[in-house]
Amino acid sequence: MPKLQRINLNLCVDHNPSAFLLSVHRFVAQVHDPQWLSVFLAELTEEDVTRTIYSGFYKQMVARGPPLADKVVRVCTALREAMTQSNENQDFYLQPILSTYVRAGHVGEAISLADSDQALSYLALLIDTDKLYEEALGVYNLQKALKIAGKSLKDPKEYVPYLTKLQQMDPAYMRFTIDKRLRKPQSALRNLVQCKDRTEECIQYVKSSGLYTLALELFKDQPEEYKQICLLYGDHLLNKQLYEEAGLMYQRGGDVDKAITALTRAGSLLQCLTLAAKQNFSEEALVEFHLALLSALLNQEKHSEAAELHSLMGKHEEAVSCLVEGRLWSRAIFLCHQHKQPQLVESLVKPVLLESQSRSLMDIRAKVADMEKHSTRLLVVREQQANPDRNFDALSDIQSDTSSLSSFSTSSGGTRSTKNTRKAQRKLWSLKEGNPREEQALLYTITELIQNTERLTSDVRTTCLALAELGLDTEAGTLQSAMTAALEKIQQIRHSVWPGSTAKKTGSDADAIDPTLTDMQLKFPPTSCISATWRLDIYS
User: Fold this and answer.
1) Is 227:254 a contact under the CB 8 Å cutoff?
2) pLDDT for the residue numbered 396
3) Which positions fall inside the ELP1 alpha-solenoid domain (predicted)?
4) Residue 161 to residues 37, 154, 164, 176, 299: CA-CA distances in angstroms?
5) What are the residue ranges of helices labelled H in 3-70?
6) CA dihedral (39, 43, 49, 54) positive or negative
7) Each residue of 384-403: pLDDT tens digit?
8) First vs last Cα of the chain: how many Å apart?
9) Which end of the chain is less packed: N or C, by CB atoms within 10 Å?
């Protein structure tokens, strides 16, 4: 009746999905005609028609459940089971059963089931013959692929030689060739691994496909091939600058020299030293290795590891200098006393610590001075903007700049466009007096200064602790007082620049200044970056 009345057949399911799935055997028995079942399957969609084209008839049904998830697949599966379990001849429901596989996306299974020429012809009605041909290849059924190709517009000269060539291949290599054509690299590799006489081709395929992890799994019981894959993977990781992982792969591949080179570039101290110990380097080679590793560590600012390496080389003075350079004051002091060289505290640690305290003082005071200058200027700018006689020509200029920036940003031009974009960006955020966007530029700069100053609290605590350890209470107290005064000034500036506002940004937004802050974001004060435990009570 639904078909005669031109009712969308999805309504049979959507009216009550649960009831339909429970009574699917009765549905098959009542419809009975395979052609009508095929029509029903052809019309199935994921759309719930009770919520779309027939929604007007269901407005009064308040307590309706959610739409049936994966509707097409679930209905096809249920109908297939019902038709398979019916008392009819096996071929009676063949066409609708094939439809259930096709509609559910299991074309390969439909091809496997379609043994007769009539069944293949039916599939050719449901699916484009070129796609059906590819699917037949995908299940490695060359005979059916040949029959399907014969039903298409393909030239026999195009597919017959290819299928003949596949037929003559070793089964595993045939599957690999087909998978490669169909762009199924993982399946292709699994099949190629089974071809024992094609190891070199397999390794080259791993390299071209990048399936190193899968290859390691497939070759785990073949030591020589496994090592080759490890070395190739190491080269791949090295090119991606993943030096530590490359070093691990080189180790598995048995190339210790390459492993040491990669791990040295990674600055992996302990792993490098372990490998060096295994190599039994000569004294001269070991010194050369240590120097290369030391250079890598310092380039990566791994001062702690560099100091440890200096200590292993017996260069305790250099180790202390390394720690001092990294501002690791407490460790530097400990190392001096550990090696019974307290004089190094006076000669190496104390002078640099005092210099660091002095630089920190200057930095804090300079930032506070800049904040005061810019916040004072901001008040003047805001007062000028409140004046109704403001310069509209200037506003016109900045609107032109803004539109220029927009056009530059969206263009795909080359170097000139990029340079012009940067120039326009700098002009928009210029602190030059009279710039129509001077208020936004000042807000951005003040925000940056506040966060950079607050981030100094952690370093100030570390410096004050080291100064206290050396009995330099005056210097420590001076530094902490300067930081305290700076934070008090910041609090005043927050209230004057953003009166009545609270911090808008949270979480990771507090970690870095975004150079593309919008004007709306600048209307709120920045989130505090103050270290919670920075202040020492002994200097409060």
Assistant:
1) yes
2) 47
3) 3-166
4) 40, 13, 5, 18, 60
5) 11-14, 17-22, 24-31, 34-43
6) negative
7) 888 756 554 444 454 444 44
8) 89
9) N
